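Example record

One chain of 153 residues, shown exactly as stored in the release files.
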Amino acid sequence: MKSTLLIAAMAAGLTLTAMDASAAGRGQQHDAPDFATLDTDGSGTVTVAEIEAAGQARFDAIDTDGNGALSLEEMMAARDGDATRRAERMISRMDENGDGELQADEMTRRGLDAERMLSHADTDDDGEISEEEFDAAVEKRGDRGHKGHKGRG
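Predicted structure tokens for this chain:
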């Protein structure tokens, strides 16, 4: 029984993540809720019903006209809102001079360093990234929304 409940909870969690990504219209995970958010009754465990309720709440939040279906406009609005929140967090974390904008040097100092990025993907240490190394690095990262890396759309 426990294994059946665990499998059902994992399936519901995957459904929530897939629905969230699909609803946001960008094919990658939305900010996933933390355990405390999912554990709505405070029992210290998360049930299938709680996971399903979180998925429904996310759907309902995107379904602004309340018709039980997500239009392109609703999905785009959800995606735009998510992108705005991510950009705001990035600026607050990286804006060293406090001007509310990110200059290239602030982004480089705070982790968008080309040499560091290359070193993670350059598995044969030749100072260059082959297409195979690039593909492996993208797969390792979970292809976080990067599309068309081979020049395809």
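Notes: The mean pLDDT is 74.
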